[in-house]
Amino acid sequence: MAANTKPVLHGYFRSSCSWRVRIAFALKGIEYDQVTVNLIKDGGQQRTQEFQSVNPMQQVPAVEIDGITLCQSLAVIQYVDETRPGAKLLPADPKKRAQVRMISDLIASGIQPLQNLYVIQKIGADKVQWSQHFIDRGFKALEPILKQTAGKYCVGDEISMADICLVPQVYNAERFKVNMDQYPTIKRLNQTLLEIEAFKVSHPSNQPDTPADMSA
Amino acid sequence: MAANTKPVLHGYFRSSCSWRVRIAFALKGIEYDQVTVNLIKDGGQQRTQEFQSVNPMQQVPAVEIDGITLCQSLAVIQYVDETRPGAKLLPADPKKRAQVRMISDLIASGIQPLQNLYVIQKIGADKVQWSQHFIDRGFKALEPILKQTAGKYCVGDEISMADICLVPQVYNAERFKVNMDQYPTIKRLNQTLLEIEAFKVSHPSNQPDTPADMSA
């Protein structure tokens, strides 16, 4: 596969981790092809043998790029940041880079996994309460951290991977009826970011696989 | 705070994410001070107001370094890798770096959070079965990925952040009685890595806060 072939994103419109990658591609101006993996239909297309050969973890996103297949959204985002021109998604200053990664990982390891589809399917009837609990727990920690690090965006005045993680997590919080008024900094950052074109074009309501009754 | 002050690691001997940081410090030859945060005693010292001012997420590790406080082990590891001399914990090649991050995140986002203390405390009586389920789920995905990427270590023949994540996760798997014979590549890599000095000195059985009946 040639390095200049368009990347292929295996994703799902409502997957928050797929949305992270879509935002990164939009911010970097990277054209890509999308393959829908419907996480609900047919008991979940991520469970097929065919998709397991793409990502044995049975999750989206998975990205075919430059002849390799990468899973885990933050690995994909940092790979394109390191190999593609355009806006930098991690700051040059090592301390700021560390803060961007800390905030990204707080969301990607500390919140999102606990309200992931395969986890809440195991939780069953209590899934809304369970998800609210862990999103609230994470946001209670994130709010004071962002109060210290944020400028216009999560870390200072440049958009970064932290912002890419924040917006899809707030979208999930709203789906699970978390009261965002408790988190004024998160709420303000999210509103600012949603005005940016890269966050709009990548939004779950605007994807090729978005159902007609959910599109904007 | 001067940049050459020793870092302070707030950790716990048995915390797998604290162990990751200890391995990284040992591999880089970084001297540090340890402050014990006993996750069990007094209902959990991570819950105190005092510790929440260090890490609002009420988790270890947290590291004071170069005048800032960093939480999230992979952010700490990449920060010291970018700012300290010595062995490189991420390879120079972008594709290999991406694979290292993918494997690290598969563990740090896809497995560890689901068997974290604050999660299994919420699960209660079923916690062993729950933890086994999610570790097995993750290792079933990790095994074929490592079969493709591994040389002597997780990615090729150089020790990396992926190895730093692997060994503490296998330690947790063994605590939860996961049958490691199902995962020959993971088992082989773990055995190889445990022979290395940096993994030995950082081991949970060798820490200042290791209880007498658990030390080697």
Automatic annotation (TrEMBL), chains A, B:
Give every GST N-terminal domain span: 5-88
State the Pfam families in the record: GST_C (PF00043), GST_N (PF02798)
Key words, A-Z:
Cytoplasm, Isomerase, Phenylalanine catabolism, Transferase, Tyrosine catabolism
Q: Which CDD domains match?
A: GST_C_Zeta (cd03191), GST_N_Zeta (cd03042)
Its EC number is 2.5.1.18, 5.2.1.2
Could you tell me which Gene3D superfamilies the record lists for this protein? 1.20.1050.10, Glutaredoxin (3.40.30.10)
> What highest taxon heads this organism's lineage?
Eukaryota
Checking InterPro entries in the record gives: Glutathione-S-Trfase_C-like, Glutathione-S-Trfase_C_sf, Glutathione_S-Trfase, Glutathione_S-Trfase_N, GST_C, GST_Zeta, GST_Zeta_C, GST_Zeta_N
According to its UniProt record, which cofactors does this protein need? glutathione
According to its UniProt entry, one GO biological process term is: L-phenylalanine catabolic process
- Which pathway does the database say it acts in? Amino-acid degradation; L-phenylalanine degradation; acetoacetate and fumarate from L-phenylalanine: step 5/6
Which reaction is recorded as catalysed by this protein?
A: 4-maleylacetoacetate = 4-fumarylacetoacetate; RX + glutathione = an S-substituted glutathione + a halide anion + H(+)
Molecular function (GO) terms for this protein are:
glutathione transferase activity; maleylacetoacetate isomerase activity
GST C-terminal domain location is 93-212
Query: What family does the database annotate?
Result: Belongs to the GST superfamily. Zeta family.
Kindly provide the name given to this protein in its UniProt entry: Maleylacetoacetate isomerase
- Source organism: Xyrichtys novacula
Q: What is the lineage of its organism?
A: Eukaryota, Metazoa, Chordata, Craniata, Vertebrata
